[in-house]
Amino acid sequence: MSRKNLQVRILDDRIGNQIPFPEYATEGSAGLDLRACLDEPLTLEPGDTQLIRTGLSIHIADPSLAAMILPRSGLGHKHGIVLGNLVGLIDSDYQGELMVSCWNRGRTSFTVDVGERLAQLVLVPVVQADFEVVAEFDTSVRGEGGFGSTGTR
Ligand SMILES: O=c1ccn([C@H]2C[C@H](O)[C@@H](COP(=O)(O)OP(=O)(O)OP(=O)(O)O)O2)c(=O)[nH]1
Ligand SMILES: [Mg+2]
């Protein structure tokens, strides 16, 4: 099991006490749950989007890594609580607070409790590109086909 050392700053005194520090729920978990660092419960009416603090910042530092903030399947499927940006991308040089854009895309209001697990953070590898401008590509089987080009339906 390979683990990456990651610098984290705790920006709110309640982290590690009233609001648990992020941890992998199981040995095989890909994501760390991010919790709502709120002063009081926050009700999201249908269609509302709010930027919610996590009380944490990370500095990934290594340009070959990034982090993604992804929805939790239970909240998204059962309650319509997903991310206002659909997916959050955390750059390796970002040092600000991790923020979760929380969107109620459902039909009923939803109250986010203080410390509620809102979304999950996944570290991912990144390859930065050096563009080589060419006139033509080598031929591929797919060519320019896309958007359903390979099927009949
Ligand atoms: O859900 C998110 C998405 C982004 N960020 C932070 C980390 C990321 O590195 C930074 C910038 O994000 P992004 O590049 O997606 O936003 P932008 O609209 O392009 O802003 P910028 O001009 O600052 O890059 O904002 C979050 O805290 N949460
Ligand atoms: Mg950007």
From TrEMBL:
Known cofactor(s): Mg(2+)
Enzyme class, broadest EC rank: hydrolase
Superkingdom to which the source organism belongs: Bacteria
Family named by the database record: Belongs to the dUTPase family.
Gene3D superfamilies for this protein: 2.70.40.10
Catalysis: reaction(s): dUTP + H2O = dUMP + diphosphate + H(+)
Gene that specifies this protein: dut
InterPro entries (alphabetical): dUTPase (IPR008181), dUTPase-like (IPR029054), dUTPase-like_sf (IPR036157), dUTPase_trimeric (IPR033704)
Protein name: Deoxyuridine 5'-triphosphate nucleotidohydrolase
Example GO BP: dUTP catabolic process
GO molecular-function terms, A-Z: dUTP diphosphatase activity; magnesium ion binding
Xref: Pfam families: dUTPase
Binding site for substrate: 72-74, 85, 89-91
Enzyme Commission (EC) number: 3.6.1.23
Pathway(s) annotated for this protein in UniProt: Pyrimidine metabolism; dUMP biosynthesis; dUMP from dCTP (dUTP route): step 2/2
